Amino acid sequence: MIKKPIVAANWKMHKTPQEGIHFISELNNLLLDKEKPSIIFCPPFTSLFHMNEMISDLDISLGAQNVYFENEGAFTGEISINMLKSCGVQYVIIGHSERRHIFNESNKDANKKLHNVLENEIIPILCIGEKLEDRKSNNTSKVLMEQLKDGLAGINKDMMDRIIIAYEPVWAIGTGVNALPDQVEESHAMIRKILLELYDNNLNNNIPILYGGSVKPDNSEDLINTKGVDGFLIGGASLNLEMFSKIIEIVHNKFMR
Ligand code: PEP
């Protein structure tokens, strides 16, 4: 059976609830009755509640961009997994490079969040990826290994059946410069190899690995046809109706051939 590809939209700090709802209703009009990949929207927290009410009849899922690892307490400005669940969230992005590099989140933080999310039966989208200096100094595999080893510490094999990995090279995020298909193929293969090593080859080899980093309509065909790519995590282009619906169509076409 062909795995259904995933297209996840990371809206970052963009769109009010009203703008988000408008976007989804326009997208739904464009895609009405068409077969689609699995689509996951990760809007800002303020949009989750209303978007959940709106998408209940649509073939779209809801994700959050972050979560705190404690369940309750004096953590001003943070949000708990239960709060997200009460808004219908089914996925949570963890360890996005903007969280790592702007908010100093470590692999250890990502790991604590991952445990909390998985224990609450929500699916994490764990983001990993190297910086430009890592790639230039041939340290990509070392960085990916560290992020996976520390990020997945204590996560057992059964939990790994409910995880999505997003390979997002930091130098490609929001820069307009995507990783080339060869680079993506190589990194995705590295990630699979590392996962198998970490779990002594005793792992379901179907864990979805998404690519993220300046995906646009004009590069999405080459990227989705790249070996090892199970879908995309998209920032900038997911904010634009025309671009996002075009990418959805391209991803869908690949899997219908
Ligand atoms: C992202 O935010 O995860 C991302 C990949 O952004 P962009 O598509 O804008 O590079």
Which features characterize this protein?
257 residues, alpha/beta, TIM Barrel, 10 helices
Please report the distance between the alpha carbons of the first and last residues: 13 Å
The radius of gyration over CA amounts to: 17 Å
Proper CATH architecture: Alpha-Beta Barrel
- Reported by name, the CATH topology is TIM Barrel
- Shape field: globular
**Average of per-residue pLDDT values:** 95
Superfamily (CATH H level) name: Aldolase class I
What pattern of helices and strands is seen along the backbone? EHEHEHEHHEHHEHEHEH
**From the helix content, strand content and strand pairing, which structural class follows?**
alpha/beta
**What's the main sheet like?**
8 strands, parallel
Number of structural domains: 1
Question: Total strand count, please?
Answer: 8
CATH class, named: Alpha Beta
Number of helices: 10
pLDDT < 50 runs, ≥5 residues: none
Strand content range: 5-15%
Strand order in space, largest sheet: 7-6-5-4-3-2-1-8
Helix content: 40-55%
Task: Summarize the structure in short.
It contains 10 helices and 8 strands. By secondary structure, it is an alpha/beta fold. The chain has a single domain (6-255), classed as Alpha-Beta Barrel (TIM Barrel).
